[in-house]
Amino acid sequence: MEKLYTAIVTAKGGRDGHIKSSDGVIDLDLKAPKAMGGEDGYANPELLFAGAWGSCYLGALGSVGKRDGVDVSEATVDVHISFNQEGATSYALSAELHVHVPGINVAQAQKLADAAHKGCPYSKATRNNIDVKVIAE
Description:
With 137 residues, this protein is of the alpha+beta class. The protein has 2 domains: 1-43, N-terminal domain of TfIIb, CATH 2.20.25; 45-136, GMP Synthetase, Chain A, domain 3. Helices cover 32% and strands 27% of the residues. The chain has helices spanning 45-68, 106-119, 121-126; strands at residues 9-12, 18-21, 27-29, 76-85, 91-100, 131-136. The strands form 2 sheets. A 3-stranded antiparallel beta sheet has the order 1-2-3, with no helix packed on it. α1 (45-68) packs across α2. The longest helix has 24 residues, at 45-68. 18% of the residues are buried.
């Protein structure tokens, strides 16, 4: 495997902390969401993960669409990342990827969505680690 790029982000303070990338592009405070006793109006790990996964996933969907001759340039994905309590002191993530590809039927969109999920690096990283549902709409 050949490394093409490495992102470096320094985190301090956990969920109520700060993250900053080595290139200065990301430099922001984090707070737990209000539903978890924090404050609205701040980024949190689940928001950042959802945004990163969604962007990466659409890249994979673009590759699948190109391979299959389907225009997916207007496709969108809503990534739902849930922070779940398993026990008194254990937690786990779960995810839903809601995929919309204009101009094709839901069955064809589901086929493309599943193929993109197989190839997306974020999907590969989470496979068999968290509960993930891919839903074409």
